[in-house]
Design goal:
By secondary structure, the chain is of the alpha/beta class. The protein has two domains: 132 residues, Aspartate/ornithine carbamoyltransferase (Rossmann fold), CATH 3.40.50; 157 residues, Aspartate/ornithine carbamoyltransferase (Rossmann fold). The protein is 38% helix and 14% strand. Strands 7-6-5-8-9 form a five-stranded parallel sheet. α1 packs across α12 and α3 packs across α4. Bound molecules: N-carbamoyl-L-aspartate. N-carbamoyl-L-aspartate binds next to α2 and α6.
């Protein structure tokens, strides 16, 4: 690594070498516990949007490295209710901790936090924009299931318009020799800027409406739920809701590679059948667990311990 990592705002801040470095450090974290590495450090959690996995795995990662966690808690019970602006809240929070993990519905909120706090900031999801720590755990999972990232065909299924996990992961995978297939209803296509980035980097990519058409070619199927909370128009959501679903019968009907692995950032709603959970294809719960070593590595890096 050249420049030390000080904040993790967007996956765009990482090239292939930087990504592989984070994954390598994550592997080391998993192999060897460091119960005192971050002793004396406090992680501030500021989740202004709902979260289960990301918030809890950040907390768990910090505690398992000997650090402590200060949780901002429910925004409804904070001074936001008195009209305090985000910048002021972040400035105040910065006085109470050493690193901040922030999730916020506004695109760019994490960058703002990094600018005003003067602390290392980790983006835990900003609107439909970026979710870089999820991307690292997704790539870490892929390395584990397929032994590497190059040479794979990945299918992104579902709400490609609003899924920050897809935007981040597609960008990261463009540094590797992968074929990217985007499968979605017409109105939920991946944003133009995502496709343009792939084009600029000469990444092989295609768009599909029918999952069955491409399923047999996939090494990874990355499913997403429809991001109901991001639709400005309720009617538009009603028109696409429940428009796709992956289940065992579909895999059997289409025929898939034995080595196909199904990923999902979770939570799932109705797009991924529970009848897949016990099959060797399903790796989504393992994927969620991988959030621990990856977030440990990222916390240690931004705090200058790696
Ligand atoms: C994702 C998110 O928040 O973008 N969840 C997560 O962090 N694991 C995906 C989603 O909410 O659908």
């Amino acid at each position: 690594m050249g420049r030390p990592i000080t904040s993790v705002i967007s996956i765009r801040g990482f090239d292939r070498k930087g990504i592989l470095y984070v994954l390598e450090q994550s592997g080391k974290m998993e192999q060897r516990p460091h119960p005192r590495l971050l002793q004396g450090h406090v992680l501030g959690l500021m989740f202004v949007e709902v979260s289960t996995r990301t918030r809890l795995s950040f907390a768990s990662a910090m505690m398992r490295l000997g650090g402590q966690v200060l949780d901002f808690g429910d925004p409804e019970r904070s001074s936001f209710k008195k009209g305090e602006g985000l910048s002021d809240t972040i400035r105040v929070m910065a006085g109470y901790c050493d690193v901040i993990a922030i999730r916020h519905p506004w695109e760019g909120a994490a960058r703002l936090a990094a600018e005003v706090s003067g602390l290392p900031v980790i983006n835990a999801g900003d609107g439909a924009n970026q979710h870089p720590t999820q991307t690292f755990l997704d790539l870490y999972t892929i390395q584990k299931t397929h032994g590497g990232i190059d040479g794979l065909t990945v299918g992104f299924l579902g709400d490609l318009r609003y899924s920050r996990t897809v935007q981040s992961l597609a960008g990261a995978m463009s540094h590797f020799d992968c074929r990217q297939c985007f499968i979605s209803p017409e109105s939920l296509r991946a944003p133009q800027h995502v496709l343009e980035e792939l084009e600029e980097r000469g990444v092989q990519h295609e768009q599909f409406s029918d999952l069955g058409e491409v399923l047999p070619q996939l090494d990874i199927l990355y499913c997403t739920r429809i991001q109901e909370e991001r639709f400005a128009d309720r009617l538009e959501y009603e028109q696409v809701k429940s428009s796709y679903r992956v289940d065992r019968a579909l895999l059997e009907h289409c025929g898939v590679k034995e080595t196909l692995r199904i990923m999902h950032p979770l939570p799932r709603v109705d797009e991924l059948s529970e009848d897949l959970d016990a099959t060797p294809y399903a790796v989504y719960f393992q994927q969620a667990r991988n959030g621990i070593p990856v977030r440990q590595a990222l916390l240690a890096m931004v705090l200058g311990k790696l």
